[in-house]
Specification:
Bound molecules: nicotinamide-adenine-dinucleotide
Distance between the termini: 81 Å
Helix content: 25-40%
Radius of gyration: 23 Å
Number of helices: 15
Strand order of the largest sheet: 14-15-16-13-12-17-18
Strand content: 15-25%
Structural class: alpha/beta
Shape: globular
Largest sheet: 7 strands, mixed
């Protein structure tokens, strides 16, 4: 029988009247069913979060932190089961799923260690003025399908630590590992503090429009992020938006080809390219372009694409059919325009599963769709540049501003270039590293606000300034 995974509303694991099927992208088989919630279940979840808010927000932060540390331990204790569920619904190879689960446990612990101390803003003979941080209330959290567990806990942890309560909506494509995790931790959390509901396309807009939600924390595409912002504007809900990217890497002529080629490959192809901060445009200096592109192509040909549950697979399938078809359309567009392929380009649609071969393009033009659009798949365009100024201009010539990277033997020059990139994160000689203690957020149309670090935590709070006059009231 197909396993069923329940939702968490007001401390109880519950079903809805109807179910949604969840597929394994490696073979398109149904692997589980989850509740298909609508307005009624959403209202119940929001009411539970509202009712739980006064008691939860008044608890000392140490008590809330202790609950979160238990959640971190529960993730660690059940890592193997969660990892297998994650691979089966998301497609990523076991080692990468293991990495996501381990990082989730570690991030819950790290983010829980943050503090929300009061700040004295004036301490004079005249007055004492203190800024404290109060939780915004009920948070609606919406998560995409590429890192379902890691992105869920990145929202749950700061929200609960700050004293907020939450209604979380996973992606309909990848709800299973999250629901299993929630079942494991439900008994650790007071009823109503965390509610998790699943549903189809209509549920997200219902959640962002709900009048009793005070803040929306959203991770997903820029197009949906704009809809979330519009919907939140009706009653001025607070928002945090973590959106799409079209990150550029700039490879200087002094970069060590032997060392860098493999890292450039993984900066684009980890999780089959379905990472907001994957390198989606690689600019390589013309002096080393031929050598570097040949080295990347040679490495790429050794990589096994397949079912993430099979040993030896390093790149899994695309997570869902619409995204699979989008990436195939981008590849077809490149073919139609006669762009040169270094590797890949030919899929086999007769094989079940959303597999796309590793595809690398050789210097397509700057206005190619595959360069301009966020591919979100195992496709990487390599482009040639002549001067650093030109590379910076091309890297910045996008509405996105999420992350970027510079590869060079001269770290100082790397930093000089990094400071000119219009993105929230820039790595020099590294890729995809995010710290729970540093703010992560997009510039331009890649986001609004930040997650992680103190800044991310503060987004779940309002400042409240309390001022006490010290000298006597004038007569
Ligand atoms: P998506 O925007 O289609 O969906 C994200 C979530 O929003 C899903 O849970 C979906 O059900 C829900 N949703 C859909 N329509 C909605 C609406 N009108 N109102 C409210 N919610 C709605 O994104 P996706 O395809 O699931 O994820 C891929 C995108 O996410 C990529 O663009 C990627 O770059 C981005 N992403 C960004 C980050 C980041 O931190 N910046 C991280 C991961 C993914």
């Amino acid at each position: 029988m197909t396993p069923q995974y329940l939702n968490l509303i007001d401390g109880n694991m519950v079903a809805a009247d109807t179910w949604l099927d969840v597929l394994n992208p490696a073979n398109e088989q149904v692997i589980g069913r989850v509740p298909d919630c609508g307005q009624r279940e959403l209202d119940a979840a929001v009411a539970a979060a509202r009712a739980a808010f006064p008691a939860w927000s008044k608890k000392p932060i140490e008590e809330r932190r202790a609950v979160l540390m238990q959640i971190s331990d529960a993730i660690k204790d059940n890592a193997d089961e969660l990892m297998r569920l994650l691979t089966s619904e998301q497609g990523k190879p076991h080692a990468q799923a293991q990495g996501e689960i381990a990082a989730s446990a570690a991030n819950v612990a790290a983010l829980s260690s943050l503090t929300l101390d009061d700040e004295i803003t004036e301490d004079s003979d005249v007055r004492l003025s203190r800024t404290r941080r109060v939780p915004v209330g009920v948070v609606g959290a919406i998560v995409p399908w590429n890192f379902p567990v890691a992105l869920a806990v990145t929202k749950i942890t700061p929200a609960l630590l700050s004293g907020c309560t939450m209604v979380l909506k996973p992606s309909p494509y990848t709800p299973i590992a999250t629901l299993r995790l929630v079942e494991l931790i439900a008994g650790l959390i007071p009823s109503g503090v965390l509610n998790v509901i699943t549903g189809g396309d209509a549920l997200g807009p219902m959640l962002t429009a709900h009048p009793d939600i005070d803040k929306v924390s959203f991770t997903g595409s820029t197009a949906t992020g704009k809809r979330v912002m519009e919907s939140a504007s009706k009653d001025l809900k607070r928002i945090t938006l973590e959106l799409g990217g079209n990150d550029a890497s700039i490879v200087l002529p002094d970069a060590d080809v032997a060392k860098v080629a493999e890292q450039l490959f993984w900066s684009s192809f980890l999780n089959a390219g379905q990472i907001c901060i994957a390198a989606k445009r690689i600019y390589i200096h013309e002096d080393i372009y031929d050598e570097m592109s040949a080295a990347i192509a040679e490495y790429a040909r050794m990589i096994k694409v397949g079912d993430g549950a099979e040993q030896g697979t390093l790149v899994g399938p695309i997570q869902n059919r619409p995204q699979y078809e989008r990436v195939l359309a981008l590849i077809q567009d490149a073919k139609d325009n006669g762009y040169k392929f270094l590797v890949g380009g030919e899929g086999d649609p007769s094989i079940p599963g959303y597999y796309i071969p590793i595809t690398i393009l050789d210097n397509p033009p700057e206005n190619a769709r595959i360069v301009v659009e966020e591919q979100f798949g195992p496709v990487m365009p390599l482009m040639k540049f002549s001067t650093v100024e030109e590379a910076i201009e091309r890297a910045n010539n996008t509405d996105y501003g999420l992350a970027g990277a510079v590869w060079t033997a001269d770290a100082q020059e790397g930093v000089r270039i990094a400071e000119q990139l219009e993105t929230g994160t820039v790595w020099v000689n590294e890729f995809l590293h995010l710290s729970p203690f540093a703010p992560f957020g997009g510039h331009k149309q890649s986001g609004f606000g930040a997650e992680n670090g103190k800044e991310g935590l503060l987004e779940y709070t309002y400042p409240q300034v309390i001022t006490v006059k010290r000298d006597p009231v004038p007569a």
